[in-house]
Amino acid sequence: MSGRKQRGVVALYLVILCAVSGQAQKVLRWGADPSGGAPYVFTDPANPNQYIGYEKEMIEALAAHMGRRPVMVATDWEAIVPALERGEFDIIVNGLEPTEDRAARILFSKPYYVFNLQLTVRREERRITSLEDCRDKLVGTLGNTAASRLLAERRVPFRGYADPVAAYRDLELGRLDAVLMDVPMEAYYARDNPRLRPVGPPFRGGVYVVGLRRGDEALKAEIDAAIDAIMRDGTLERILRRWNLWDEAQAELHAAMRRGEGVSYTMTAASFNWSDALERLARAAVVTVALAFGAMFIALVLGLLLAIGQSKGSGWLSALCTAYIEFFRGTPVLVQLLFLYFGLPQIGVALPGWLTALVGLGLNYAAYESQVYRAALEAVPRGQWEAAYSLGMSSVLAFRRIVLPQALRVALPPMTNDFVSLFKDTSVAFAISVWELATAYRELANATGEFLLLGAVVSAFYLAMSLPLAHAARRLEQRQARRRALQLQAAEVMT
After folding, report:
1. Residue 325 is assigned to a structural domain of this protein
2. Where are the alpha helices (DSSP H) in 154-245?
3. What is the CATH number of the domain that holds 395?
4. For labelling, which of 30, 52, 239, 341 has a CA lying 20 to 30 Å from the CA of 40?
5. Which pairing describes strands 178-182 and 139-142: parallel, antiparallel, or unpaired?
6. Which pLDDT tens digit goes with each residue over 59-113?
7. What share of the chain is helix, strand, coil (3-state, %, to 5)?
8. How many domains does the chain have?
């Protein structure tokens, strides 16, 4: 074999060897929510194809010490513990706080960061000087966190958010009186905002830990050893300093680790009991009912106008109604709600969350109801119009007394189905932090792990709201059918 061929074989062998060894390297899959996740892990503004953050750098250091290749799995914060239990990833690294309810389900590593909470208000706010002043105010925070549990413990009204961006934005717009967040989030999203200011010093600290599945004690030992290693060699300190997160609390934690001392911490308890849960679900059900009825009223009135404009209006009016209908039917209702909630404030229109949900759902369903009305109106024979005109009725009177009642009988079944669907579609209001039934279920279940029992209770609430409506609609249909039969019999007798 020639020298060139030998070198080619050796090169090919090395490539295959590297590929095999790379595949053989263990993977460490870690779950985190990058949505509004700065400075933990978030999308790099300069390069949207990659994530950055101090926890991403920390997990890379941990994985290197363990001889593993880190792979991030993006997930939702509120469902991060169930996702770990399902095996979607190996560990949670996402500012996870050790709590009693989580301890019943997963394992915790040694702490790697000490955090405090910071209260933030608008710059012109002078009524709030501490958390005690918020008992009659509305405070925003992340759901299922130490901050939300502290607010519940002190009976401070609060609204849970899926990410800090929306909370601080609502504070700017006056939808909230204050926001309580962990200091890393406050430092990144609020500290440099000229319209916001911190109130008092940070308080009531806690720790962040790595979460692992029960039974993964061997992996926990590896993680603990890696945390010790990157603290002792100064790697973690350099990462925290680079992200301006190094403070006296971190110095004390690292010093204790270097001395080999165990670091004790208190796990916060979940403020949950069944009577409280049922009360909160009942309040959320009332909000759901109010949203559904309010949105359906808007949909029915506007839908009728759209149907008339599309089928009976002039050319420009028909085109305008058609454009409205196609836009609202062709775009997701969730996108429409986000546009109304976050987009309109940029032109000076800041609606509260419940009103945004009510109007948004009403505008969306109006497009669908218009087509129900249009089909029902077209189902009324043309002879009904002619008979009304022969009796001297005007177009408006003929429509109101003759055509519309008949059309409503045709439209009633699909309208009822849409109303039942609207009850369920109110769940999209969670995206704008409206406390309706589905949002309440998500927060309570994620905080307690009682997905099965709470899910059964929430399903019972939805059935209790929708079944009577469906029954009433059937009764109305039967009454309308009997009335129609009597009218036909009377017409036969007269002829």
Report:
1. yes
2. 164-172, 183-189, 217-232, 235-242
3. 1.10.3720.10
4. 341
5. parallel
6. 999 999 999 999 999 998 878 898 999 999 999 999 999 988 888 889 999 999 9
7. 65, 15, 20
8. 1
